[in-house]
Amino acid sequence: MRSTLSKIAAALTAGALTLTLAACGGSDAGSTTLRVGTLSDAPPSIYLENGRFTGYDNELLRDIAKREGFEVEFVGTEFSSLLAGVAGGKFDIGSSTISSTEARKKTVAFSNGYNTGFTTIVTAKGANLKDLAALGGKRLGVVQGSVQDEFAGKVAGAQVVRFPDYNAGFAQLKNGTLDGWVVPQDIGQKYLDQNPAVPLELGYTVEDKDTPSAFAVAKKNTDLLTKLNDGLAKAIADGTVARIYGQFYKNTPLSKELRQGGPGLPVKNLGA
């Protein structure tokens, strides 16, 4: 009898442990709360304000989560380790204006896209880094592992300096130890708007084609990917995407594919 009771107790304990783990996140899309890896210093897309993670990406994800019946817990991380964290199960979702490149699709799966953008060079005023040829031989800062890191690495003769976050790079640019800081255009423009006394300007700018920003999930987590795409489609259809976008991007028009009734920005994952 004692042996039977011990087996029952062990089974109940194991079951309780399983439920506890599921409620704390993990790869199960049906979990109550999912962990989201994000950044804290890249407005207007992703940033920390009064102790709360916000920005266009994160507020849109909150809306999608509410529609699809799960909650989100945002956790700050460095971009260079974000996708590995998603693939390995540390995070259920990556939310960090992540461009859905072919190289990244080898590591994670992406939702449909919710934004498009441009890469730009923030420079000292008068530096005249207005074209690609002018960047050769310059000291260019990037966030490690970003699309901008990939871009700068292809600039002939440029010296690429990698940083863990955006604040570190802007600080070095202000100190004069960088010739240019390569960032998404919206982040660069937001910094200039918030720091009008700093003598910086936008230089060479190039469109990021065919790689819209998207939420990242583990490849095996197809249920969660379906929920994200379903919630995003609904948010586009009823105008929520346009509303949230307008809160954070005052002077940048929303892509027509993301306006109310638009088709969205499809991302074809490798092997899908």
From TrEMBL:
Q: Which Pfam families match?
A: SBP_bac_3
Note the coiled coil stretches, chain numbering: none
Which InterPro entries does this entry report, sorted A to Z?
Solute-binding_3/MltF_N
SMART domains named in the record:
PBPb
- Where would one find the signal peptide in this protein? 1-22
PROSITE patterns in the cross-refs: PROKAR_LIPOPROTEIN (PS51257)
For this UniProt record, the keywords arranged alphabetically read as follows: Signal
Q: Which CDD domains match?
A: PBP2_peptides_like (cd13530)
Q: Which intervals hold domain Solute-binding protein family 3/N-terminal?
A: 33-252
Q: Write the protein's name.
A: Amino acid ABC transporter substrate-binding protein, PAAT family
